Amino acid sequence: MRLAVFALILSALLAASPALTANCLQEQAIYADADGAYELRFEPVGSENAATSNHFKIKVAKTDLVLDGIVMQSGEPVRPNGMIMNKCPEGDVTGDDIAACTVWEGVIYAVGADGKVSLLPEEGSEAAAQLLLPDFGPAVRNASIWGKATVAPWDVLTFKECAP
Fold it and tell me: Is 139 exposed, middle or buried (0-12, 13-18, 19+ CB in 10 A)?
């Protein structure tokens, strides 16, 4: 009887715990917001010589909307500055062109399972337990995608699973 109660309590605790990120690299990590309305899926950059350190896509549930995301290490001190864009033109574009299609930009923070806040891990590193994109929700509400996306995301995204 005690063993059955212990097993029941243990299974409840494990179900309430965030997914484990061990053995998942950042470029394979998939995150979701608290409502399950937004899924952020990292993908490999594909080149060691790229100006970007991370790439990702954000899928908005119940729509065909997929946003492109990049991370560039920049600033003083150097930090992972992310940009989330919607249908940006390719080729020879101006800063105004990029600004017009940018949904959000800012530093992407990682939150460990212990609650410690740090910077987004680079490719080849263990995936973060959670991501913090400050003001992501308000930025979506103020972007041209609002209307297609009718639910604003949370600023915190939690590790969901590891892509193969």
Answer: buried
Calpha distance 41→27 (Å, rounded) = 8
Q: For the segment 19-69, what is each residue's pLDDT rounded down to a tens digit?
A: 567 789 999 999 999 999 999 999 998 777 678 889 999 999 999 999 999
Residue 59, C-beta contacts closer than 8 angstroms, at least 6 positions apart? 38, 39, 41, 65, 66
In the sheet where 38-43 sits, what is the strand order?
A: 102-107, 79-85, 66-74, 54-60, 38-43, 29-32, 156-162, 130-132, 109-111, 117-119
Residue 34: helix, strand or coil by DSSP? coil
**How many Cβ atoms from other residues are within 10 Å of residue 9's Cβ?**
10
- CA–CA distances in Å: residue 159 to residues 9, 102, 142: 23, 24, 26
What is the H or E stretch that residue 78 is in?
none
**Cβ-contact 82, 133 below 8 angstroms:** yes
